[in-house]
Amino acid sequence: MVCSATLASLSPARQQLVRLMQEIGFGFVERLAILKGEPVMEPKPRVVLQTKFGSGYGSFRPEAGISDFALKAEVRQLLARIEEMGDGTVLSLEVRHGLPFVMTFEEGIA
After folding, report:
1. What is the DSSP string of the chain?
2. How buried is residue 41: exposed, middle or buried, by Cβ count under 10 Å (0-12/13-18/19+)?
3. Residue 23, CA distances (Å) to 1, 57, 88, 104 in order
4. Which residues have a Cβ under 8 Å from the Cβ of 73 and sit 6 or more positions away?
5. Residue 95, class by beta-carbon neighbours within 10 Å (0-12 exposed, 13-18 middle, 19+ buried)?
6. Which of 72-79's residues contact partners 24+ apart within 8 Å by CB, and which partners?
7. pLDDT given at position 107
8. Which of 49, 85, 101, 109 is most buried by a 10 A CB count?
């Protein structure tokens, strides 16, 4: 299945994940459960923040205050990979500039 191209076209859980990455800016999402290709946002995954000096504070993504927008390629790739996982756990998702950068995960074995 091809990932949706806009925020509004995503499931509520996927929207929450995108918004969480925007809020993080720089850091990690850890121990995020994936069930049937969807992120499980309750209980909330562990969030580890980083400070990148010289980059300023506040919103890291210009889309942060907008209700709908086109998803960046990195976000579409992340969501497609999560969907492919089926069931599993994202052990660590590194976020840079509010976008997914590197993911370490365990998949359910069929």
Report:
1. -PPPSBGGGS-HHHHHHHHHHHHHSSEEEEEEEEETTEE--SSPPEEEE---TTS-SS-SSGGGG-S--BPPHHHHHHHHHHHHH-SEEEEEEEEETTEEEEEEEEEPP-
2. middle
3. 27, 11, 24, 20
4. none
5. buried
6. 72/99, 74/99, 74/100, 74/101, 75/18, 75/21, 75/99, 75/100, 76/3, 76/5, 77/3, 78/103, 79/3, 79/4, 79/10, 79/14
7. 87
8. 85
29 beta partners: 47, 93
Q: Please report, for the chain, the start and end positions of each structural domain, with discontinuous segments joined by +.
A: 7-107
pLDDT in tens, 31-49: 999 999 999 999 999 999 9
Instruction: Enter the tokens of residue 107.
Output: 């998949």
Residues in the chain, total: 110
